């Protein structure tokens, strides 16, 4: 035992006698600080074996010989680091450890396994979460740099002119990675006001969220915080548009950031609508396949021709069936009364069904006899518009359907023919009748033929 101690003492004396005051390779001997030399990334003075750049010897006896602390640092706290590194803490926002001059709360003084004298390599989360609350870093949806532990991708670890120690202002910090987004937004004619005027964090949580796309709230709640008129409307409607209630909500129809199309739609209005209403499996029971219904049709309802589905349907919700913008009877038979047909009459002449005789409110007349009035105002069996007309498209004229409307298991054919001053039809509900605006048909005489 005494022999071993003597051997160590003798070796140390030789090392101390041969080492110059500014060269400290002798510190990394097997008997002393060999573990430091084995670190992956060494502090530059350590790498250069210049221990005396930071340490100064105060006593002749080495600590291993029981002489107490014979070395001490040449300065304390940040003052030591500032012997080589520029002083920090002058900017608007300073990281707590930097403000306290406690560089060693993050950095190792001699060396570390990771870069920058940190004990972490690519994943910095373990280091940062030693102080910061980690609850928000365990969400279902994580921002990419957070999930990878790349905290310094967005934050400056020492000081910043921006709040939250960001490396730049929020928008620039985000667009530094989202270059494709920045390029597309710059070329877009329509930009969502929050995207144009507010920081990205107005809608997104920069770390993580329980909601998709790291949103601050689930949709549509997030959107309705600003769109108060839509919020108020939706609270009173009977029929909500299904996409609002499904995953994606507002984002199913709208581009949340920018667009080339009015209303922040990703495509033109009709293309967006037919994205869902263009197949045979939408809903239970399935809704009509509008794409199939429109394909190849010669006569299109004017709003459909212009691709304006929203002219008749409210894209968010409505008090009326099929999210129509106004009242329209659901039954095949519905005699006219005030308000019952306001949906159709919001575009068509409001007096269309008010007078039994007219020369101006409709061209569907026999002389002055208003044949719209005859068909719809009938108190016992007034027929709705769908009895003769297709709401979207048809192969006939005036949107009169050739196949006719569903009537139970049957479709009533109209067999409508148009003439220069009138026309005729021979549907399943009556024999063939003609009408002529200039030379009215006398139906009493016609019955005797």
From TrEMBL:
<dbReference type="InterPro" id="IPR010177">
    <property type="entry name" value="Paired_CXXCH_1"/>
</dbReference>
<dbReference type="Pfam" id="PF09699">
    <property type="entry name" value="Paired_CXXCH_1"/>
</dbReference>
<feature type="domain" description="Doubled CXXCH motif">
    <location>
        <begin position="301"/>
        <end position="350"/>
    </location>
</feature>
<feature type="domain" description="Doubled CXXCH motif">
    <location>
        <begin position="143"/>
        <end position="182"/>
    </location>
</feature>
<dbReference type="InterPro" id="IPR036280">
    <property type="entry name" value="Multihaem_cyt_sf"/>
</dbReference>
<feature type="domain" description="Doubled CXXCH motif">
    <location>
        <begin position="43"/>
        <end position="88"/>
    </location>
</feature>
<feature type="domain" description="Doubled CXXCH motif">
    <location>
        <begin position="95"/>
        <end position="136"/>
    </location>
</feature>
<feature type="domain" description="Doubled CXXCH motif">
    <location>
        <begin position="192"/>
        <end position="230"/>
    </location>
</feature>
<feature type="signal peptide">
    <location>
        <begin position="1"/>
        <end position="24"/>
    </location>
</feature>
<feature type="domain" description="Doubled CXXCH motif">
    <location>
        <begin position="241"/>
        <end position="280"/>
    </location>
</feature>
<protein>
    <submittedName>
        <fullName>Cytochrome C family protein</fullName>
    </submittedName>
</protein>
<keyword id="KW-0732">Signal</keyword>
